[in-house]
Amino acid sequence: MYYAAACQTDFPAPRHRDEIAERVRRMAEIIEQTIIGYEPFFDVRLLVFPEFAHTVPIHDNVERLLEDIAVELPNEHTAVYERLARQYGCYIQTGSFLERDPAWPGHVFNATLLIGPEGILAKYRKVNTWIPWEVHTSPHDLPDYPDDPFPVVETELGRMGVAICYDWLFPETIRELSFRGAEVLIRVSAYMDPWGTAEPMNWWTLVNRTRALENTAYVVAANQGAQMHHYPPFSWPGGSMVVDYDGRILAQADPGPGEKVVVAPIDLERLRAERERRLGHDTRAHYRSEIHAYYSRSSLAPGGDRAPTIDGLKDRIRQSKQRGPSTRGKNKP
């Protein structure tokens, strides 16, 4: 048994990478305050931060993002988290960075790191970017991409997998992590209104609870809590939460912007016992893979070596729509 903390931030969108250090300083304070403050009550071992906690895609083209705010990973900022993880024996899922990589010149990735007491354990680059507005590159775009696009890490806190924001609207992406053994599914997110925490379109809560119950896994989801004037044109409703493997909300921040931290227990022993015991409602064991042909059907084409542009992404989306749904198995008149 340990506790996980979903931590939301409220920073102005930085204009330059020089502003990242101040954000890291504040997130380091949140880490220490959470671990020390809750110590008489809870053993907080996992801390999760939101998407765009370090940098925000303030430009609509890759060239300006590379010039102003993209950084290589690891760097002096991730070293701060490594130090804290060693000091406190904790695990930190960083807020996302806009990442540049000499191996892929001209591209920007939306990336997060899982850091533990031993150092950096995994890097995840967002697969399902929020197109057409997000001009970051997906590993899906790149021919012969050499890295594992869905790393699942074995730790003393369980097997962990992460996906970023829009990724979670694709059951296949979270299912991939689950079938690779993930027990704790981490969501690093910047989810905006009207798809946030309020009815009638409370997608945030609905999706987090659904992914938890359909994969029999814990979900730790940190959402962006920036005030609207920090991240125009959207408002960011927070609502960071922890959900158990039956879809029960264990803790949730009140809807609305601002820095907030909520903590809840992760009981690995009970999760593993339930996974082992259940014969009903085990959709992982019940999944009839051979009959679901759509998994192997091509839809949105990879972008290739060229960096994405908004116009190019719109064209790819239109082409995917023109392909239409598969007619396999449909009755013909």
Number of helices: 8
Largest sheet: 7 strands, mixed
Net shape: globular
Mean model confidence by pLDDT: 94
* Helical content class: 25-40%
| Low-confidence blocks of residues | 327-333
Structure description:
With 333 residues, the chain is an alpha/beta fold. 27% of the residues lie in helices and 21% in strands. The chain contains 8 helices and 13 strands. The strands form 2 sheets. Strands 1, 2, 3, 4, 5, 6 and 13 form a 7-stranded mixed beta sheet that branches. Strands 7-8-9-10-11-12 form a 6-stranded mixed beta sheet, covered by helices on one side. Strand 8, helix 4 (171-179) and strand 9 form a beta-alpha-beta unit. Helix 1 (20-38) runs parallel beside helix 3 (76-88). It is globular. The termini are far apart. The model is unreliable at 327-333 (pLDDT under 50).
How are the SSEs placed, and which strands pair?
Layout: E1 2-8, H1 20-38, E2 44-48, H2 62-68, H3 76-88, E3 91-93, E4 97-99, E5 109-116, E6 119-125, E7 152-155, E8 158-164, H4 171-179, E9 184-189, H5 203-215, E10 218-223, E11 241-243, E12 249-252, E13 260-266, H6 268-277, H7 283-286, H8 310-323
Parallel strand pairs: 1-2, 2-3, 8-9, 9-10
Antiparallel strand pairs: 1-13, 3-5, 4-5, 5-6, 7-8, 10-11, 11-12
Helix pairs in contact: 1-3
Give short descriptive properties of this protein:
single chain; disordered C terminus; alpha/beta; globular; 333 residues; seven-stranded mixed beta sheet; 21% strand; 13 strands; six-stranded mixed beta sheet
